[in-house]
Amino acid sequence: MKTDEFYERNPVYVLAYSVVCITLIRFKYYFGWKLSIASVHASGVSFNGEKFKLINTCSPVVIESDKHIRNKISHWNIAVQEWLRKCIYQRSPFKSRGLSQLWVFMVSAFWHGFYGGYYFAFFLWFTQVYTQGEIFRFVKHETSRLRKFYRSLGNLGNFVLIALVNIIFSHNAAFFILLEPRLCFKLLHSVNYIPQTILITLAVTF
Question: If both were cysteines, with which of 4, 105, 121, 168 could 176 make a disulfide (CB 3.0 to 4.6 Å apart)?
């Protein structure tokens, strides 16, 4: 993904490759986190009297299969997510929910470092979280035509929504790996800005 030849491919190939690549990279983190939490469980620190659940690092099943982007993020590096919620989001200087969410994502990007790719990724993740939240609020009423259409699709609707959320979630994570702004812009251009344009358009619309 860091060669010029890669970006000469058609947009579908670039998008598919980035999604598959990032998905495989996530499993590297799952392995490391689960291995580290095994020592915590072995010490008994995470035992609540019935199960070893007091401390957890991530929930791979939720991250890979949940249709809510917010749930995916909250189950990634769980301890840090709790800290961000309590210390950054709940103490945000902004009254607006959207601005408070953006504040959290930008603080997280700053904490990771100063590479442009971090800020690309976290801004796009914020856009995805905000957009999906607004859409879900829009269709929460039983009379919503979009809600009725989604329910009429049954399991197919769930599968399509999960796939769509995962594709955008993973594609946005590619910027986190690329790091360099030059490569980030090449990736944006290679997919014709389509995923990002859809996200931002929906965020503005809802």
Answer: 121
pLDDT digits 0-9 by tens, 39-52: 888 888 888 888 88
Instruction: Classify residue 135 by its DSSP letter.
Output: H
Give the mean model confidence (pLDDT) for residues 62-89.
93
- pLDDT digit string (tens) for 170-192? 999 999 999 999 999 999 999 98
Among residues 174, 194, 176, 26, which one has the least CA distance to residue 116?
176
Buried/exposed 117-132: b ≥16 CB within 10 Å, e otherwise? bbbbbbbbbbbbbbbb
Q: How far is CA 44 from CA 37, 54, 59, 160, in A?
A: 11, 10, 20, 41
Distance CA 22, CA 5 (A): 19
Q: For residue 83, which phi and psi values (nearest 5 degrees)?
A: -65, -45
Token pair 């010490």: residue = 43
Q: pTM, whole model, 2 decimals?
A: 0.89
Query: Residue with structure tokens 């769930």?
Result: 158
Write the CB contacts of 191 (distance below 8 Å, at least 6 apart in sequence): 11, 14, 15, 171
Task: With CA atoms as reference, report the closest residue to 61 among 37, 15, 26.
Answer: 26
H-type alpha helices, the chain: 11-43, 60-65, 69-74, 78-83, 97-112, 116-138, 145-153, 155-178, 181-190, 194-205
Long-range contacts of 74-82 (CB under 8 A, 24+ apart): 77/33, 79/55
